[in-house]
Every structure is written in structure tokens, then in C-alpha cells.
Amino acid sequence: MKSEPAPVNGRMRAAIRPGMTVDVVLKRDQRTGKRTRGVVAELLTNSSFHPHGIKVRLRDGQVGRVQMIIG
Hints:
This protein is an all-beta fold. The protein has no helices and four strands. It has a four-stranded antiparallel barrel. The radius of gyration is 12 Å and the shape is globular.
């Protein structure tokens, strides 16, 4: 029986690279926590750790904080 790898959270900058598929929470969705899936184009947070998630720009131009790394 093959198991899926455990999801990784997006609070560590070193774990996130352009081209990865991630779930982010957009600024407008912070109150609801609604997640948007996309592919990382650019990392916007300079610090190595952020408690709310590393801020990224997705390929479609949307900006949000990474909640989970999908692949």
C-alpha cells in the first residue's frame, strides 16, 4: 500500500521554490481562510521564516501566503 507524502506547511522559505504547486491564502480571503492553488513564480518574503506563511506571487499574478506545499 503506497501512501501519499505528508503535506508540508509554507512557513519556511527554504522549502519553497519557483515552479512548485502550493495552496495560498490571498489577502482578500484571510478572514475566511479560503485557499487558492497555484504555481509559485516568485518569493516575496525575504526572511527565512514567517508564522503566517511565506508570501509568494503565483504565475497568474495573484499574491498570497503559502499554507501548504503540494508538489
